[in-house]
Amino acid sequence: MFTCENNRPILTEKEKKISYSKYFYREDTPINDEVKEIIDNKIMMNPEDVILGDRINDMIEPEKIKVENGYCILPNGCGYVAAYHKMPGVTLEMYKWWNSWWTSGEESNLKYKIWCPKHHYDSGFKWNLETCGTGFPLEDVYIQDLFREVPERMGIDVEKMKESKLVMVDGANATSRVLNGDYSVRPIPTVVAHFIYETEDGIEMRTRFWKGYQVLGNRFIPVLKSDDIVTEESLLGLLEHNVLEMEGGLKVILPQLYKEEYLEKKTEI
């Protein structure tokens, strides 16, 4: 179970003795200027530029994407968050290794914490405890339905994808609610997807959150009840959280972590 101090998770004595715990103590990586301006000034994107299910294949052709970093409340009350991450030095092989590595073994909690030390507190089977944005309350996040290996579940044209630089769609249905919160407030459903593209020097990632949606029957379906509320603040928090996870987390630690925990240990066997 997690422990915290000054609104941050802390490591157990056992965790401190594990070699990769050193990544937990790294210096913070500042959020890039474009995203910082969006968050600080609450600059909401035009809902007309949102990519929903009927346009999901625009993600195969990035030149069709009008907004790479942004958020908005949609006319139906649902929310949208977009973030773009360049990851030179991170390969698709590394990313796939990471997905299986951090969720396995007795040390999965530590692996989750080193990913995003400010926001990641605890993890379990298809469940994470995190805060989506600095100053936000802790949330239980339940991953209900992964479609990592089946992008067609989201309506992606797989044949068209094969001819593009889009090499992986790491998606899932999820729900979240505030830890120990008011149980008269229902959990909010969300679709999350990380679109991975190979580049000359690594990968690019385009992350999208559709808050209030689920992928059902290969389609995006809005599932909010009439009195469910997606707040602007929650979307700003998701945007901050994702940038810290990917640009301040994976991009920073994964090349060296992959070398130490996979390549070198593989050589030792």
TrEMBL record:
Its cofactor is Zn(2+). Residues 54-259 form the DAPG hydrolase PhiG domain. It holds the Pfam family DAPG_hydrolase. It comes from the Bacteria. Keywords: Hydrolase, Metal-binding, Zinc. GO terms for molecular function: hydrolase activity; metal ion binding. InterPro entries: DAPG_hydrolase. Belongs to the DAPG/phloretin hydrolase family. This is DAPG hydrolase PhiG domain-containing protein.
